[in-house]
Specification:
The chain is mainly alpha-helical. It has helices spanning about 15-20, 25-35, 50-60, 65-85, 85-90, 105-110, and strands at about 5, 5-10. A two-stranded antiparallel sheet has the order 1-2. Helix 2 (about 25-35) packs across helix 3 and helix 4 (about 65-85) crosses helix 5 (about 85-90). The longest helix has 18 residues, at about 65-85. The termini are far apart.
């Protein structure tokens, strides 16, 4: 099993898709990485040679992925919360951040319904 950026990529998937298991790499970036590393995107991850895996590792190192990216995003969120802006407060209260309504929707963000006694239509 190939290990790239601390992530075991799945063996039975195409390399193009297997790279997307790394946090910070989507399909478009995966394709870009494969072109610059010179690896065929149709090969399976288990069929990669050690040389190809090494090329992929060195190419992925040029991008911010996994722990560094998570840390940077966490710092950005913490900064918003510390300065007390609206986005920071919405993050802290676990409510939608981008202006969505919360009276009827936002169940994913707010969680399961909590019944309030005496509330009828």
């Amino acid at each position: 099993m190939a290990r790239i950026s601390g992530v075991d990529i799945p063996r039975d998937k195409r390399v193009e898709v297997a790279l997307t298991y790394i946090y910070g790499i989507g399909l478009a970036r995966s394709q870009k990485i494969l072109v610059s590393a010179g690896v065929n995107p149709d090969t399976r991850a288990k069929d990669l040679t050690d040389d190809e895996v090494q090329k992929l590792r060195s190419t992925v190192e040029g991008y911010m992925v996994e722990g560094d990216l998570r840390r940077q995003e966490g710092i950005a969120l913490k900064r918003l919360q510390d300065i007390g802006c609206l986005r920071g407060r919405r993050h802290r209260m676990n409510l939608p951040v981008r202006g969505q309504r919360t009276r009827t929707n936002a169940r994913t963000r707010r969680g399961a319904r909590k019944t309030v006694a005496g509330k009828k239509k």
